[in-house]
Amino acid sequence: MLVKWIRCTVVDRRGFERGQRKWAGLLGEPGFRGQGGGWSRHRPGVAHIFAFWESRAFYDSFMARSYDRLAASQSGTFKDSQARLFEYRFDVKTGFEPRFTDADLVRVALCRVHEERVEHFKLMQEKVWNPAMAGSPGMIRGMFGEGAEHDFLVLSMWRAAAEHGKYRIERVERLALRAQTEADIASLTGDIVELEPSWTV
Description:
Elements lengths: L1 E9 L2 H10 L9 E9 L5 E8 L2 H10 L1 H5 L6 E15 L12 E9 L4 H17 L4 E8 L4 E8 L2 H5 L3 H11 L1 H4 E11 L6
Antiparallel strand pairs: 1-3, 1-4, 2-3, 2-8, 4-6, 5-7, 5-8, 6-7
Helix pairs in contact: 4-6
């Protein structure tokens, strides 16, 4: 499965949201698995969209045929758009599926990993971080993806803001020590996204 993560700064909120609803046109596309997104909790005006495709081939075919038509309605409503692609590697918790209807929040983390530490990082993700996140109340499902240039995506869906808050800072610090995260990661950026139900396809 292929994951596309788009982040942009919205300059015309009403126009952007109107255009976002036009992406319902994705439903007929071969290989399309689901799309959802919402607003950054910490950065005003920043929107995140997550789209899922069965494979890179289906995605490339869509980009060549239909993308421009669907994207036209949002032209001029945003700036600073960044899009990244990741290959799904494994679940965080169990049974990941690109469904947004039962979640309120998405937590997204982008990890750029030192080349010589990639294998260790992947192992720690599976052995240390996954069990810890899977045991957190309110965490519904998640996935771990691999991109270009040793970039990794950790995406988790949460039932409510309060539940995500229980995944506490001191616990994260303890896990980071155990997983030697500091030695693995060159840079880490992330965000908490409040999902907009009307953007779900």
